[in-house]
Each structure stands twice: as C-alpha cells, then as structure tokens.
Predict the structure.
Amino acid sequence: MVKHRDASVRREQILDAATTRIADVGLDRMTMDGIAHAAGLSKGSLYWHFKNKSAILEALIERIANELLETWHGDHSENLSDYVVTTGAIALSEFAANRALLVTWLELLHYPDARPRMSTMYRHLRLELAKGFGRDGQKKSAAVVALFEGLLVQVAMDREFDPIPVWRSYSLRLVDL
C-alpha cells in the first residue's frame, strides 16, 4: 500500500479504481471493498475520503462531466465547423482509448442520482455549442450531441468500430445545415 499521499491525489486514485471496478463488474456489483482493493488502500482510508459508494459515484460524475465540458469549452467564434469536428474527434478518441472511462460513462447514464448533474452537463454543452450556430442553434447543438452520444454507444458495443470518419462527415453536415 502506498502511504502519505496528498488528499486530492488519493481521491483521484480512488476514482480511478472505481472507474476500473465499474468497467470490470458493473455499477450494481461494484463494492467499497472492491474499490479499496483495486486502489490498494484499506477500507478505513477509503472511507476517510468518501463516506459511501454514492459519494464516489457523485465525484465520478462530476469529474467526467467537467472533463467533457472542458474539452468542448473553447473559442469557436472563428470557424465553428472546424471547432466542432476537431473537438468532437478529440473527445471521441479519448473515450475510445479509455474503455474503463467509456463503460463508466454509460453505466452512470443509468444511475438515477446522476440524472440531475448529467442533465445540467448536457444543457450546458448544448448552450455552449448553440452560441455559434445562429438560427436553429438549439436544435443543431442537440443533434450534434446526439450524434456524439450515439457514436460512443457504438464504440462501447463494437471495439472495432472507428467513430472518427463518421463524426468528421456527419457533424460537419449538422453544423452546416
């Protein structure tokens, strides 16, 4: 066991272990014991940082949502088409490269306590994209987000599926409608 780490480093270690456990056994079968073992920590240390499984899941939701929003947040006033195509391809590649993150994201979509935060995240993402779309901005941004999510599901189900060519072609078409 690794000792004497900064609290924020230890929390990230626990969240990484929880992500791995969700990918391995699913959200319903993930336990505090399993997380502690995967993190190489005692249960006492785990409970020092998180009071229960729900607190870990809330922190995971927040971390993933913040990372996704950070990826999509940027200056897209110059060339919206390039921004959407490039940023979406980066985000899709990150999810596809990190299977545990992808599976965790999909599992959290079914977690009832995640819905308020996920709803806020999706709303923020749609509003951020809609700023550059002009007419029908809300509809276009919803379609871009739907394409992104649909491609993520296909990546999760088919490890050989490459979402990038589809994204590059069809996100551009949605933006230019």
In short: The chain has two domains: 1-51, 58-176.
